[in-house]
Amino acid sequence: AGDPQFFPVYVDSIDTGELTVTEPGGGAPPVPRFTVYATNGITVVGHRDLVSPALTLPQSVIKYKDAANASQELAASDTLFDGTYLKPTTEIPRRALRNSAGTGYEFVAVEDLVNDTVPTAPDATVKTTDGLTTVTTIAGNVAGNLPGSRIKYKDESDADAETSSANTDYDNGSNTLRPATQIPRRELKNRNGTGMGVYATAGRLIADTVPNAPIPLKFAWAAGDADTYTWTVTDDEAGSYTTYTNDGGSGTITYNKNGAGFAALSGTIVLAVNDTIVIRRTTSTSNGWSKWA
Questions:
Q1: To the nearest 5 percent, what fractions of the chain are helix, strand and coil?
Q2: pLDDT digit string (tens) for 66-113?
Q3: Which of 57, 90, 165, 216 has its CA 20 to 30 A from that of 139?
Q4: CA dihedral sign of residues 260, 262, 264, 267
C-alpha cells in the first residue's frame, strides 16, 4: 500500500477557523491556530496564530444589581492585566453612607456589597434639651416613641415631688414637648370649704403671683347697739376690699376711718395696719352684722 501521505493544512481564516487542505509539495505552509477562551473555558474571546500572535482583549464591564435588584452593567472600560488577573480600568470608589442632612457617618465599599457586610446604620440618639442626658435611641429608618412625661413640683413641706406620668405631647407651633396632663385652676376656699372667687393656677405658682385670699372683715352689733367697737387694723385685716354686704335690717350703714367722721359705705375700702374703724347703723333693734370682702 506504500507509506501514508500527509496533507498539511493551514488556517485560512483566523476568525472563523476555516481550514484549507494542501497537496503535498504545494500550497501555503501550515499555520497553527490558537483560541482564547474566557475563564470558564467555554466562551471564545478570540483567535490568534503564529503569524499574528498578539491578541488585544476587548473592554470589560462590571455587572451589578441596581436598587430594584435588576441586573445592570457599568460602562465599558479598558481591560488591564496585573500579572495574575484581568480587570477593568474602572475603579469603584468607596462611598459614605449619609443621613437625611447629608452628613456622612460610615463608608461602604464594593467588598461590602459583594460580601453583604454593608455597615449597619448607627442608631439616632435622643437627648434632653441641654444635650446632657440620653433619653432613648432609635434605629435608623424606624419610628420611635418618646417616653411619658412628668411635672416636677414642690409639695407643702417644700420637698421635691412629681405628678404621675402622662403621654408626651408635641406642640408644632412652639416646637415644645409637654405632658398631656393639664393642671386645672383651683378656687381658694375658706375654712368652711366655700369658694372665695379667686383662683390659684400653675402659672401663678411658678410666677409667685397667687392671689391673696379675700378674708372678709366682719363687724357685729348686739341688739340696741348703734356703733361697733373701734377696731385697730392689724396685718391680718390690712388690704383692699371690693364688696360689701350687711344683715339687711340695720338701716343706713356708715363708717368712720381714723376719726375722720362718718361717711357713706361703698363696696370698696382700703385699710392699712393701725388704721382705726367704727361702723354705725341707724336701726339697732336687733343683732346685726356688716362685712367687707
A1: 5, 40, 60
A2: 999 999 999 999 999 898 999 999 999 999 988 878 888 889 999 999
A3: 165
A4: positive
Could you say which DSSP state residue 123 is in? P
Q: Cα–Cα distance between 195 and 200 in angstroms, integer? A: 12
Closest CA to 163 of 177, 182, 146, 176: 182
- CB count in 10 Å sphere of residue 270: 11
Residue type, position 22, single letter: T
158, 148 contact by CB (below 8 A): no
CA distances from 77 to 45, 59, 100, 156 (A): 16, 5, 33, 81
Residue 253: Cβ within 10 Å count: 19
The residue assigned the cell 366682719 is 218
* Distance, CA of 191 to CA of 34 (rounded, Å): 115
What is the Cα–Cα distance from 274 to 271, expressed in whole angstroms? 9
Q: 3-state DSSP call for residue 111? A: helix
User: For the segment 158-209, what is each residue's pLDDT rounded down to a tens digit?
Assistant: 999 999 999 999 999 999 999 999 999 999 988 788 888 889 999 999 999 9
Whether the model pTM is above 0.85: no
Distances (CA, A) of 114 to 63, 92, 121, 170: 11, 13, 18, 43
